[in-house]
Every structure is written in C-alpha cells, then in structure tokens.
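Researcher: We plan to redesign the surface later, but first we want a full-length starting point. Tokens attached.
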C-alpha cells in the first residue's frame, strides 16, 4: 500500500496530534505515524501518576480538558487525548515504525513497517521516552531489572533497589515502600537528593531516609546485578545486599539515530541539541521540522506539552506559506 500526503508526522504524542489538528485546519493532507499506541509515552507513565501541569495547560485543538482535580492523572490524560483524536478525526497510523526516509528532489519517500508514503514535508515529534539510559553493568539484562515503572503491587514483600535521585526515583521509592516492599534501597550517584524534586515530596523522602525506612547510598553505583543480590560501590567500600528487583529510574533520551538517518545535524553542545529554526521549527534539511521535546536534545526538561503546543502552529503556518 502507498499513500501520498502533504505532511507526514512522526509521533502520535500530544504535540504530534496538535500538528495533525493544524493540518486539518489548513486543509493539508497528512498522516500521523507512531511505532506504538496513541500518546505512547503517556501510556508508559506510572499507572497512578499525576501531571505537574494543570489540565488547561495540556489542552490541544480547543477541546476542553476537564479533570477531577486541577492536575490530571494519567488515566484522565489518556482519555482526553483519545477524545481529541476522535473529535478531530485525526488520521493516525499506530503500531507502525518508520524504517527509511529518502529525499528525492522536493519530496520524501518514506518506508514504514507496513507500507510506503510520499510526503512533501515531514514533522518529527517523537519525544524521548523510548530509550532509557542504561546502567552498563553485568546483569542489567536480567528480567528483574526494570527501566519503566508501572505500579507497586509486584514489589510487595520484595527487596527493591531504586536507582536515581530525581522525581521519578523518589516517587517510586516512596510508593513501593508504602505498598509493602520488604526493603527499599536507593542507589544515588550524586551526594544528595536532586534539588528539583517536588517541594511537597522532598520532606517525605528526607524523613524516610533519616529514620531508616528507606536506605540511601549516596555517591554510589551498582556494579553488578545477580538473581538474588546486587553489588554496590560506595564511598565507604563495596558491599553486596539482598535484592529481588532493580528499578532503574535513570531517565530517557531522544532517538538521535533516527534524526541522523534523515540528515539532521546534531549540535556539539552538552545537550546534543538538534539544528532547527526557532521561528519556523525547520531543520537543516529543507522540508523537515521538529516539534515538542525532541527540540531540546538531551535537555529533556526544556520542552513540555504546555510550552511546545505552539510548535504545531509555527510549522503549519510556514508550510502553508510555501504552498
């Protein structure tokens, strides 16, 4: 099967959907292709997660987002973006991976895992949640090691190690502790809990560590993972402790290999910021645009739904002027 469109959007997250909505408004033909489900990154968030942003800041396409509390939950967000996609009749192609992109004159030939496309323009809105930072230690490939956290129930009466000191690590450590883990140990590379941890959570984790309910090893690293234990390198020497699960909340990174495949230049700065125009969002490849968190490279806290929704309008305005 082959389709010809004005715009092919890679990524069916909130910003990819926003780009599709702008295409609808401008009467541009388009498809939104994603290797996973609708808003796949949000789907992979912890089941009981609450957003930092209020619901109105997550709205796209003029569709009201009504939640029970000012800050919506993951299930409410999934319901909302399903409703947005349905109400706008967005043309999504889900569970379909883009495998090859080739530019031929003023068009792009795209091959996916299911079919092929010809597109005049490409928008990349792929986010960063699919590639976790690895520990690179022996045993990391064991089934007990998780780079994504869903819910606390599987860790009841288990010895659990949580790697990291940012918001996700702290939330996970507190939740599995309160839901009955036998022991919770935090392994933290830095010398303290991350200063950016939510201010209303910080006293909780500090007090749990102080009283010994949660054990924390600072300036420490896991050096080996085995079926029933982990080895930790600490300032006070190496040790081995009992362990059933390792929850490595070490963060995630964009898929730079896909950007490089297309020919997008990646900066030499510490964040590997991709090249694009802040006025049009167009990259160094004419006709290829970036939208959303992918614009920040490794600085994944630079762009959120609420401050990158405008990317969709900037891009489609630029494309429309070129028609």
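Model: Full-length starting sequence:
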């Amino acid at each position: 099967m082959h389709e010809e469109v004005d715009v092919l959007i890679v990524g069916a997250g909130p910003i990819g959907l926003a780009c599709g909505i702008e295409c609808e408004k401008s009467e541009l033909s388009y498809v939104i292709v994603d290797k996973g489900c609708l808003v796949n990154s949000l789907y992979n968030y912890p089941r009981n997660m609450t957003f930092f942003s209020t619901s109105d800041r997550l709205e796209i396409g003029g569709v009201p987002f009504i939640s029970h509390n000012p800050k919506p939950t993951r299930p409410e967000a999934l319901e909302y973006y399903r409703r947005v996609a349905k109400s706008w009749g967005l043309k999504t192609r889900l569970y379909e991976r883009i495998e090859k992109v080739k530019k031929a004159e003023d068009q792009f030939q795209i091959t996916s895992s299911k079919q092929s496309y010809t597109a005049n323009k490409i928008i990349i809105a792929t986010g960063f949640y699919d590639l976790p930072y690895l520990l690179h230690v022996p045993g990391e490939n064991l089934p007990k090691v998780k780079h994504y956290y869903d819910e606390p129930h599987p860790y009841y009466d288990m010895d659990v190690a949580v790697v990291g000191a940012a918001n996700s690590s702290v939330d996970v450590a507190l939740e599995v502790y309160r839901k009955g883990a036998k022991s919770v140990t935090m392994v933290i590379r830095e010398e303290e809990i991350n200063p950016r941890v939510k201010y209303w959570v910080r006293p909780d984790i500090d007090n749990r560590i102080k009283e010994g309910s949660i054990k924390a090893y600072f300036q420490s690293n896991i050096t080996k993972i085995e079926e029933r234990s982990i080895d930790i390198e600490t300032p006070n020497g190496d040790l081995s402790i009992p362990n059933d699960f390792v929850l490595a909340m070490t963060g995630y990174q964009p898929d730079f290999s896909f950007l490089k495949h297309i020919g997008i230049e990646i900066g030499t700065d510490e964040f590997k910021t991709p090249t694009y125009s802040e006025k049009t969002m167009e990259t160094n490849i004419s006709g290829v645009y970036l939208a959303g968190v992918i614009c920040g490279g490794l600085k994944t806290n630079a762009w959120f739904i609420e401050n990158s929704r405008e990317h969709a309008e900037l891009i489609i305005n630029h494309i429309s002027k070129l028609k």
